[in-house]
Design brief:
With 422 residues, this protein is an alpha/beta fold. It is built from 16 helices and 15 strands. Bound molecules: pyridoxal-5'-phosphate.
Length: 422
Amino acid sequence: MDYDTVREIDPAVADALSGEVDRQNDTLAMIASENHVSEAVLEAQSSELTNKYAEGYPGERYYGGCEFADDVEQLAIDRAKELWGAEHVNVQPHSGSQANMGVYLAMLDPGDKILSLDLTHGGHLSHGHPANFAGQVYEVEQYEVDEETGYVDYEGLAELAEEFDPDIIVSGYSAYPREVDFERIQETADAVDAYHLADIAHITGLVAAGVHQSPVGVADFVTGSTHKTIRSGRGGIIMCDEEHADDIDSAVFPGSQGGPLMHNVAGKAVGFKEALEPSFEDYAEQTVENAKALADQLQSRGLELVSGGTDNHLVLIDLRPSHPDTAGKEVEEALEEAGIVLNANTVPGETRSAFNPSGIRAGTPALTTRGFDEAACREVADLIADVVDAPEDEAVIAEVSEAVDELTDAHPLYDDEEPLYE
Ligand SMILES: *Cc1c(COP(=O)(O)O)cnc(C)c1O
């Protein structure tokens, strides 16, 4: 897009918008929660539905003129049901965090107890961190991953559940490279008579494609973001069985939101349609294969990975064993200078701080959308390792930067000639 119409009215914003297109084109997006949506999703998201108030649900709105809003929302719901096999779906949450808020509001009273994974071990703010509303309204206890193995400490979780007697156990994580055993966590939740919320924000696409086990039909509630591996319009989603449908719907609207972002719901509908195509399975499989190749090559360059590898779309590098004097932020900044955009991340048993942690998280969803294969991801792993070895060496940064240019030129984004993906 050239943003000519915006430019006529507002050159400053037009500059930022085209700057962002160039930035995405010229850099490698390796933030594990990011992806590039198709031109069709972009178009739907920028549609005139942004003008429409559609408080309520399809067929039961508080405003007139909702026939097309109804069509779009019903399509999003039906496709989500087909993708994930859920009985009931709410596609209105404005974000993944709002989806979690919807579940808490529906099922908990203030002061009730949440048991969730520690943020520094891979959890999410919306799972009850003190800086988030969930940490302020509910009583929160946290389980951890085993610091030796990097895997969720399922036994420790079961013991903590017995002790703490939670009302809800939250599974699903932001920086966890391994498959989550939802059934095992469900058993723990059943044993203490707690609900189980499986937050699949990161792995929505992997679950939809069947390359990660699904919590749908296992956990009481499943939430997700719709713009991460599932590559649809930006926002959130809640899935549950019919029994909890009304409670969930009322908690989203009017419980915690006003009018739905119907243009985003349209983007969700289009993205879900794309994800129902057989080619999406190939995409999800390739995303995981690419992460494995990335992991393998990073390890052969002497870098240590939390849990020793990956089952999904991301890797978490612990810099401490190989580079004890190098912090995550320093590497993040040097890599960004070289055109590789990812984030410093805490690691289990963090010894630095949340602002300058000891790890780096890197994901393959966006690169895979761009057409990267395993060989290209191995090359990227080498570039990352080069910078980790010498974050202050300008000559290294310049060399890596050149290699990034070649990679991005070979895999153009949003060019007018060809669609981003089929
Ligand atoms: C990304 C994420 C969310 C929600 O993120 P939003 O930015 O609010 O969409 C929720 N839970 C987990 C585990 C996440 O990784």
